[in-house]
Structures are given as structure tokens and as C-alpha cells.
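Data availability (excerpt). The following record was deposited with the supplementary files.
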Amino acid sequence: MNELILTQPDDWHLHFRDGDMLKETVPATDRCFKRAIVMPNLVPPVTNKKQALAYRDRILSAASDTSFNPLMTLYLTNKTTPATIREAISEKIPAAKLYPAGATTNSEAAVKGIESLYPVFETMSEVGMLLLIHGEVTHSEIDIFDREKVFIDQHMEPLRRRFPNLKIVFEHITTADAADFVLESGERIAATITPQHLLLNRNDLLVGGVRPHNYCLPVLKRNVHQQRLREVVASGSQKFFLGTDSAPHAKHAKESACGCAGCYSAWSAIELYAQVFEDLGALDKLEGFASFYGPDFYGVARNTDKIRLIKEKWTIPDQIDLPVGEKIVPFFAGHEVNWKLAR
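Predicted structure:
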């Protein structure tokens, strides 16, 4: 097979950042994706309708494709109210993001005590707003490699029982425990999976020295968890779909004594997913994962435009120049990829 024709995909979880960074991150995404669920963890965070719509305007001003559609989200805090949710859904803001405080970049203002937001979740269930969850506990006594599993036991199970009508996306899952939880849950719980968690495991982060550009949160896990994620996407299950968690950081911020978490995959995302599915002998399952199951779960129409990938080897660049005069090292920098998006 030398070419793939796919319904244009969407990215159901990414980070654009803000300001001049948008001139890099938005065109890198809209070269391929028609829609994107945009994470709200800016500084200050996007916590209400007004901020979300203003951020959307800034994103659109940086887009290279005028048909690109950024889908905004709210950042949940302990000050979020049911009224905040109703105001947002009136402007077709489809989702709100739950970060346990301290779980990842710019999450200091996030939720402390998830149960305190149960009235908000009840409203979200009533109005049809999706709950997007970064599923890790942040207790210092819990090993970082176990935090997703503990979150499932402490929070995902109670949420599933308490709010059976609430649509939940378990974001960027990293473990067999999370994959199996999603498979065992009803039709209102699904998950996104990133390219890094399909391509890498914790050996790629730690063996031979720390590789800061492979550092992300949730952190890469054991090979057995990576293999389970690969199994579920190869199965064609409709409960898993594309969400890159593409998260740009300047090179110096990644390579510092306390390096930032996040992999910037936007410029090679669909090509890397194609490589994974080819390696798994499951290229026939790529279109569902990339283009169908996300919009189906969100309750929006599938895209009608097409993209074309050709079988052509190319090398992901070692670094990218940012508009702000800094440099960024993209995910899988220096690696050869077998598929290329035809312009």
C-alpha cells in the first residue's frame, strides 16, 4: 500500500498555548486536523465563557486554514458553579476539563477535592457537556507510575456510578488498567490515546540517561502498558480515539534542571499514528480511530473532506524555530517516519 485516503481527522486533546506561540502551534495543527479540543490551562486559566470565546478568537487569528474549528473547554476549579456551565453550553462550548491540582503544567489553580464539584457534574450531565479528565492522583506518597490506577479506584469508579448519564473522556490514558476500565464501562465513557504512549515506554525516558523531550504527564509507563494500548487501538474499539496531547515547550524549558512535561507532536501526529497502525498490521482501523470515533462520541458530524497520506520516508526535524525567537524540539525529532501528509 503506497497511499492512504482518510476522512479528515480531528485532534480531541491538545495544547496551543497563547500569544506568539499560536503562530506556530495553530498552523501545525490545521495542516491536517479539521477540529481540535483545546485545553484551557493557560495562565490565567480559561474558567468561563468570556475567556473561552476570547481565546478562540486569538486561535482563529493565527490559523492558516480558515475552515479550522477550535473547540473550546473550561478549566474546572473549586469556584466553578452550575451557572458557569450553563452559560458556557449556551455558546456551544462542548466540554470542561478536570485537572487534579498539581497534576500537570499550569494546574496549580485546579480542583482540590473532586467531590466538591458533584453539583457541577450533575449540571454537566443535564445539559450534555462532556467531562474531560486528567486521571491521576497527586498525593506525594503515591508512586508516579501508579497514580493513574489509584485515580481509577478512588475517583473514576465513583464517578461512573454516581453520574451514569455524564459523558466522560478519560484523557491520554497510559495504562492497561485505564484501557480495561474504559472497555468495561458503558457507552458514555471513552478515552483518548497519544502517539507518545503508543510509540514509547519508560525505557525511552530513562535508559541511557534521562531524555527530557520524551517527558510528559502522565509519564510513560512499562512496556506491558504500552502493548495494551496498542492492542486496544488495533482492535478497532470505538471507545478509543485520537488525542495527541501535543504540548509545546521551548527547548531550554525542556532541558532545564526542572524540565517541563509535554511532547510537541503536532507537525507529525497523523504520520506517527499511521506508522503505529502499520506496525500493528491495522491500517484499516486508522480512519475510525482518527476520524470517526471522536466526533461520534462528542455527538457532532463526521468531517466530509479527505486527506491523503503517501508512503514516503522523511525525517522529523531536530528542532523548529518559534516566532518568539526560541527553538522547540518536536516529538520524535531526528526519527525517520514512513508516511507523509500530501499537501
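Summary of structural features: The longest helix spans residues 147-162.
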